[in-house]
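Course assignment 3, question 2. Fill in each field.
Student: A.L.
Task: Predict the tertiary structure for the chain below.
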Amino acid sequence: MMIDQAKVRVLLLESIHCDAVSRLEAEGYHVESVRNALDEAELIERIRGVHLLGVRSKTQVTAHVLEAADSLTAIGAFCIGTDQIDLAAAAARGVAVFNAPFSNTRSVVELAIGEIIMMTRRLAEKNALMHEGIWDKSACGAHEVRARRLGIVGYGNIGAQLSVLAENLGMHVSFYDTVDKLALSNAHRCASLEELLETSDIVTLHVDGRPGNADFFGTEQFKRMRPGALFLNLSRGIVVDHLALRDALVSGHLGGAAIDVFPAEPKGCGDEFVSELRGLPNVILTPHIGGSTEEAQSAIGDFVANKLANFVKDGNTTLSVNPPEQPGTSRLTPVRGNRPDPLVQVIRRHKRETGAASVRSSLPPVPTTVSVARAGAAPAPNQRDSGRRLST
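Answer field:
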């Protein structure tokens, strides 16, 4: 990218880890870090003159924000999900978007495992009673997780790792995904969501927040769950109807729930949290902290900051979720095939026509076929759409 390193301005929102700040400052960038999320109007006011924007899950980077971004070249989503960013509008403006698809997976999985054990042993209720001075030493309703069936909805990076750890605890695992996935170890792939709900003792959601998944889980799905079953959502708040969940809990149909994400979340620490689930004794509520461990946030900060820095320095879009179109340019895409080194011929022809000594600095390892996409072509196949997909 043709940007003077010393003039690059970076705006990081939502308390992004200090490792990201250090990494970007080491490149000579001017970095401004803001503790809370910004709403659309606030972000439009702050975005002018910013080259790199960093957000987590709360800040919405809309088409209106991108219109006001006169200098923006890349956005870093310091989390897994990118549904908070208008990817198509960003790509159309040549703005690359990077996320951290693996860095906080272990943290989310460990929280899920901990909450499964807490609910199965009724620890939240026992803890509350102890703080009220009530000694309730009873085994009633408390169980081991061993031999219980865990149903995982969405068998992506998080769902698959949860599957492995749950089996190590002696649990049976079923999963459902709309995309074909390799079943790890002894996990059972369910033919339908209904099969999973009707056979699982514990159901956990690990789906993304695309618009097609809004209200994905509601009254009908809760009714299909087994009486006394437990429910977890550590994915996106919009995918669950919380009024329907409350009804299922209050009626006694569900034995408990652990919820880490909500349809509407406070902008910052200390703000009031409002939910239909507050006050229910058999519900564990956490403030969207699935990936909030020091280890995960450090790894995310380093990973995404490196992607942003590499994009500024040489235009590297590896692992970009929306390979952007740059007006007046073409994109070389290596595709494996059974043909002998056509890219070598491209390089040789380039040298003959330009007299260049080397073009290797900007070329990938030699593939076996090459396709060229002109600016303004159809979106890349891996660009996310608004349809329903479960894996995260």
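Instructor remarks: The chain has three domains: 5-102+294-324, 105-285, 329-382. Residues 329-382 form one domain.
Grade: pending
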